[in-house]
Amino acid sequence: MKDFNVVLAGVGGQGTLLAAEALGIAAVKDGLNVRVSEIHGMAQRGGTVVSTVRIGENVLASTVLEGQADILLGFEPLETLRNLKYASEKTLVLMNTERIAPTELAAKNLQYPDVEEIVRKIRSFTQKVMLVDAPKLAKKAGSSLAQNVVLLGALAGTRLLPVKTESLISAVEELVPQKHLDTNIRAFELGCASIEETEKKT
Questions:
Q1: 96-116 residue pLDDT tens
Q2: Exposed end of the chain (fewer CB within 10 Å): N or C?
Q3: Domain boundaries, the chain
Q4: Can you tell me the distance from the alpha carbon of 15 to that of 13, in angstroms, rounded to the nearest whole number?
Q5: Which of 27, 89, 85 is nearest to 57 (CA)?
Q6: What is the pLDDT of residues 45-80, one digit of tens each?
Q7: Whole-model pTM above 0.90?
Q8: Quick check: helix, strand or coil at residue 23?
Q9: CB atoms < 10 A from the CB of 66, how many?
């Protein structure tokens, strides 16, 4: 199989790293060669976090080169925009619509751009853009903290990943504390269904 690259971009506290880890575990379960990157930036709450997951026989390093992402999974709109360097016209950008204003915007007295404006800028790189209202779906699942698992479900719903959906669910079961498991599985299912619904409409 050809190499498959996923870049996950968000801010600290959003569970980006757990999502990347789940992808890595799922790939191992499926017998695939995988590399998951370290954190770039600050994993503290509010700091920028970028993780990369590379799956494929010839993958030796975890670094994704600019323009080489198959999927850019944006946990936060502005962070998605910042990491568009990884995208090209072949990249699917799957983005959470919840805005978390970075501290430097307030410090510089700058306005947070509209999500529509961000989407327009993304479309100048790629027409493949899908939006996920992760807070709404996580709340519906029973916990606003399950947004990262909603996004994993949405990722599975695209049917583009080289890993099996069952393997991804199994990875989530390993990583999430038992008491939050039902909520997270529901969050995964809602995320997955939301993308399937979107694709029916297009």
A1: 999 998 777 777 888 899 999
A2: C
A3: 4-201
A4: 6
A5: 27
A6: 667 889 999 999 888 888 899 999 999 999 999 999
A7: yes
A8: helix
A9: 11
From the number of C-beta atoms within 10 Å of its C-beta (0-12, 13-18, 19+), residue 99 rates as middle
Q: Which stretch of DSSP H or E encloses residue 61? A: none
d(CA 196, CA 156): 10
Q: What DSSP designation does 40 have?
A: E
How buried is 58 (Cβ within 10 angstroms: 0-12 exposed, 13-18 middle, 19+ buried)? Answer: exposed
Find out whether 52 and 8 touch, Cβ atoms under 8 Å: yes
Which residues lie across from 7 on neighbouring strands?
52, 72
Taking alpha carbons only, the member of 195, 188, 194, 193 closest to residue 18 is: 188
CATH code for the domain defined by 4-201: 3.40.920.10
Helix (H) or strand (E) holding 63: none
